[in-house]
Amino acid sequence: MSTHTPPLESALLLYVPDVAISTVSMWLAAEVTALHAMFFQIGMAMPGAALVGLLPGLRGWLLSIAARFWLLRHFTEASMYPDILLMVVVSRMIWALIIFGFL
C-alpha cells in the first residue's frame, strides 16, 4: 500500500503565495485595527503558520489558525483578546477579498 505524497514543487506553489498573501493581509489588518505591529514582526509569524497549514484537511487549517494566534502573541507582545483576535478576523476578511479579487 503506497501513500501519495505531493512533490515538493507543488507544496512550494501553495506555501509561497500563502505566506505572501497572509503577511500582507495581516499587516493591513494590524493597521486597520490600530495594533500597528511592524511588518517584520508579522513576517516572522506567518511562515510558521503557513507551514502548519500544509497539513492535509481541516486539521491543517485549524492548527494554522492556532499557530497564527500563538506566533502573533509571541512576536508582537499584543494581548490575545481583543487585539490579536480582532486582527486575525479582519485579516481573514482582507485575505478573502485579495483571493476572490484575483479569481
Task: Show the helix and strand layout.
Blueprint: H1 8-32, H2 39-52, H3 57-76, H4 80-102
Helix pairs in contact: 1-2, 1-4, 2-3, 3-4
| Gyration radius, rounded | 14 Å
Number of strands: 0
Biggest β-sheet description? none
- Report the order of strands and helices: HHHH
List keywords for this structure.
103 residues; mainly alpha; 4 helices; globular
Describe the structure.
The termini are far apart. The model has no long low-confidence stretch (mean pLDDT 87). The protein is built from four helices and no strands. By secondary structure, the protein is mainly alpha-helical. The relative contact order is 0.16.
Entry summary:
80% of the residues lie in helices and 0% in strands.
